[in-house]
Amino acid sequence: MKSALGFLVAAKRCEIHGLEQLEVTCGLVKGVSELVHMLQKERGASNVFLASRGSRFADKRSEQVAATEAVEIQVRDLFDRLATDSARMAGGMRLFSRIAYVLHALNALPALREQIEGLHLGPEQATHSFSELIAGLLAVVFEAADTAVDPAISRALVSLFNFMQGKELAGQERAVGAAALAAGRFEAGEQQRMLHLIEAQERCFQLFIEFADPTLRTIWRNAQVAPEIAELERMRRIATTTPAGRPVDDTSQRWFDCATARIDVMRQVEDCATNALLQLCENTLAAARTELAEHAALLDTLEAAGGPDVLPPAALSALVERAGVTAPAGAPAAPEALHAADGLGPQLGRSVFELMQDQAQRLQTMSDELNTVRAALNERKVVERAKGLLMASRGLSEEEAYKLLRQTAMNQNRRLVEVAEATLALADVLRSE
Amino acid sequence: MKSALGFLVAAKRCEIHGLEQLEVTCGLVKGVSELVHMLQKERGASNVFLASRGSRFADKRSEQVAATEAVEIQVRDLFDRLATDSARMAGGMRLFSRIAYVLHALNALPALREQIEGLHLGPEQATHSFSELIAGLLAVVFEAADTAVDPAISRALVSLFNFMQGKELAGQERAVGAAALAAGRFEAGEQQRMLHLIEAQERCFQLFIEFADPTLRTIWRNAQVAPEIAELERMRRIATTTPAGRPVDDTSQRWFDCATARIDVMRQVEDCATNALLQLCENTLAAARTELAEHAALLDTLEAAGGPDVLPPAALSALVERAGVTAPAGAPAAPEALHAADGLGPQLGRSVFELMQDQAQRLQTMSDELNTVRAALNERKVVERAKGLLMASRGLSEEEAYKLLRQTAMNQNRRLVEVAEATLALADVLRSE
Predict the structure, then answer these.
(1) Hey, of B8, B86, B103, which one would you mutate to test binding to chain A, going by the most A CBs within 10 A of its CB?
(2) Residue B363: how many other CB atoms lie within 10 Å
(3) Do B72 and B198 share a domain, yes or no?
(4) Does residue B327 form part of some domain?
(5) What ipTM was assigned to the predicted interfaces of this complex?
(6) Contact predicate A46/A125, CB 8 Å
(7) Which residues contact B335 (CB under 8 A, 6 or more apart)?
(8) Are residues B265 and B385 in the same domain?
(9) Distance between CA atoms of A258 and A241, rounded to whole angstroms?
(10) Fewest CB atoms within 10 A around its CB: which of A57, A408, B24, B413?
């Protein structure tokens, strides 16, 4: 029969198992971030290739295709290993479903490339297909963040997800800006899209900063001093403030170079972030394993001392109070006297009791922190779904839907997520209109 | 290399594994509900035994001790099996920690019984110890509800948890009322406690009804017609409206009998609820296994037809749109034409696509439903913690803390949970006062 301390040890083993799965998932996230970067580069090269009717970037594009394919093989391998090693992982249901979608989309890539090769697609169509595949890969990262069981790792994943999302929006901004500058003017729709992409990036990087650890924040802030970023800001201003349709100089090459320099900086920060994430997993696991060893050693000592469950009955009250659902938040520690009479001597008796108290406190803290992080993810889900609902029911574009939500929030002096929730609550009304 | 459909199958396997663990947990919950019932009866008998200085219920009490011990052995066995079969279960960290507390408290029971036997304790002290052990057991049920991965089972667990909590409060009400009636008067504090226990029961049964399935609701409503329940209501009215301290007739025996009849009715409903819960687990698992078999059969067919990932590239766009984080809520189904050109013929190609769509839709629905159920659990956690904070920082009793929160909510026309959240946000201020 397992003792109380035996169950504390079992709880620790569960925690370690969850962390091991999380480490595998984070390794996958690193691979996914590399594949996304490759696809973003291939999208950019394909864009130039198609826009120039095949006269530019033919070699660059086929080199990039080979590079993407190499990373794709690695990521497929990571997917397979996840399915083998973590076949029973918590949250696997959602994560594996996302992966199924991604695989389906990856399988369609060769045909997409053939169409690009043969110039059978416009740049917008090609961009759209790549962007949707990338969105599917980002959804895998989102799911990984949503199922993380450790608050610090969950924070790091939320931070990384927002960073990757921001980087993807930066890539889309580069494409829209380059096309408009090459055409010599920004139409009203393109300007609106630029404004939306810029603002959406701001939000993503804001959330990245909010959840990132201080080192990463500093790396990110320091990276903002690159001269290309200042130059990009000037071109952004021209792009968004010149009256719609009025001719602008064709600075598309310079725009592309500056935007690319900015994205390359992002890639470096992303690399730091994924490495820090894996390091965090490793450290958290090592700490948990050390604690497990300590628990197990204590269990051995207690068993040698005549059985591990020999705390005096007076401890009952204080113990159950901590465990109970109505336990007060600041329950006082058990008095020293509690352990004076037990067979173990005060030292060991106190140790078991303290272990339980520490554990209860730690679980409470972890649960609070996870709730905070998940709230951020949940707000994102709610806003995205409200946008989707408005797009489907009112025929709005994504930008228009977002603008409507934000404007309503400002008018009513409410938070964006509150307006989104209210919108979803009206789903039936909106759908039946 | 696993195909997209292969990952859908893996997702289904994960789901089934989660359901299998949930089935074991629900079996444990059933055992816990039996043990709680035994402890409630032992608490009642011990109370009478102690209040009569050993002259009443001596035999009844020792019979009940034996009955409790028999169930305790079963529950300890269920704990052990859980630790063996589900050593790596999701949420095991929290559940096992709760079990550790319960075991510690159970180990102290023999000493508690010795003190009762020797009349070394007052009835209040004995009641308090039993109540805290029961609170620890209820915390196990709460944790089981909080970690459930299936919305329907999660609803059933939330419903059952609230029912068990309500039944426990009914047991406490029986004890308070019996003691006061035997003493011939209700002091102001006892009246306040009675009012609190009655109101808290109402809330619990309200939540039970909200989350219970219709059959259980009907069973519960029909059970309310017992004549003892009407009689109890009359005695409740006398208990709570007679001016504090004024003599009342000693109807303690009748009160005890009526309250016991009501609790026995509850036990029958609880029995129905736990059986329905296990049945629900079984049905959900059977349905998931059937679906898995269908997926697996489709996978075999596709592999025989030349590989499972042969959907036409045109499906890419629609597929990734469904998977993407920015997917609109009401994305339209893929047109029939999508599958006309693939090697499988329209039927099989359509099947895989539909599987993915169904899965995405189902995950979304499950996630929404789970969020709704967990919100109810979370509100409970927040209110309990705010109460605990007020108790610790202001030296209030549980009733006073609850009353303060409720009064504030009414004055400010806000929801109870909002006031509780605001209270927790002020935690540092309250603690430093």
Answers:
(1) B103
(2) 17
(3) yes
(4) no
(5) 0.79
(6) no
(7) none
(8) no
(9) 19
(10) B413
Q: Residue B38's closest CA among B61, B59, B68, B66?
A: B68
Is B168 among the domain residues?
Answer: yes
- The verdict on A308 touching B (C-beta cutoff 8 Å) is no
Tokens of A422: 């209210």
Interface of B with A in 174-213 (CB under 8 A): none
E strand or H helix at A340? none
Write the CA distances from A108 to A64, A130, A343, integer angstroms: 17, 11, 70
Q: How many C-beta atoms lie closer than 10 Å to residue B160's C-beta?
A: 26
Q: Are residues A96 and A147 in the same domain?
A: yes
- Read off the pLDDT of residues B300-328 as tens digits, 9 standing for 90 and up: 877 776 654 544 434 433 433 333 333 33
Q: What is the span of the domain harbouring residue A361?
A: 310-432
Phi-psi region of B186 (alpha: psi -120 to 50; beta: other; left: phi over 0): beta
Query: For residue range A302-341, what is the model confidence (pLDDT) as tens digits?
Result: 777 665 454 443 443 343 343 333 333 333 333 333 333 3
Q: Are residues A389 and A318 in the same domain?
A: yes
Q: In angstroms, rounded to a whole number, what is the distance separating the alpha carbons of residues A362 and A248? A: 59
Cα–Cα dist B75/B91, whole Å: 19
Q: What tokens were used for A17? A: 């198992």
Q: B355 and B294 in contact (C-beta within 8 Å)?
A: no
Report yes or no on A15 lying in a domain: no
A318 reaches B (C-beta below 8 A): no
Computed over every residue of chain A, the mean pLDDT equals: 84
Out of B272, B287, B302, a domain closes at B287
Among candidate residues B131, B140, B158, B129, the one with its CA nearest the CA of residue B97: B140
DSSP at B226 = -
Q: How many separate domains does chain A show?
A: 2
Q: CB-based contact (8 Å) between A138 and chain B?
A: yes
**Angle subtended at Cα A26 by Cα B296 and Cα B359, rounded to the nearest 5 degrees:** 30
Which DSSP string do the residues of B353-401 spell out, in sequence order?
A: HHHHHHHHHHHHHHHHHHHHHHHHHHHHHHHHHHHHHHHHHH---HHHH
The residue behind tokens 């996630």 is B367
Q: Which of B268, B287, B306 is the last residue of a domain?
A: B287
